[in-house]
Sequence to fold (160 residues):
Amino acid sequence: MHTPEQRTALIANIRALPEQLAAAIEGWSDSQLDFRPASDEWCARQIVHHVADSHMNSFIRMKLALTEDTPTIRPYDQVAWAEMVDTTQPPVEYSLNLLRGLHRRWVALWESLSEADYQRRYFHPENKAYTTLDEHLATYSQHGLDHIEQIARIARAQGW
Fold:
């Protein structure tokens, strides 16, 4: 379980993520955004759109946990989603704008929670595990940072 101070830092990561993600790809051309380090790896465009997909799902899971008694969440195939046309072709700005609004709402919701709310949980059928909102916060605070690092690795490997 996290302390209030730790949660404040985790929420700060969520607050900062949209602009950090935008900065990670600032000035990139379409060919750079679409460069795949390997055939089985995502390009930066897919990563940005994936973060939006993932964080939308996370936000909904949080709201379900706050409004239902230990709901079973619905998993999704993130690899299949990353290959869909809305993830491989549109400008990254679409998802960056979505994340800016979503994260503002998400931060407001996180900051409103009581200690009891942080202990609410949901069940993930793929993992066959219960997750508290306290754990959920830590996971998604780190999720965006991990994908920013993934983009940075692409840039470093290509000398961009």
About this structure: The domain at 4-158 is CATH 1.20.120.450 (Four Helix Bundle (Hemerythrin (Met), subunit A)). The chain has a mean pLDDT of 97.
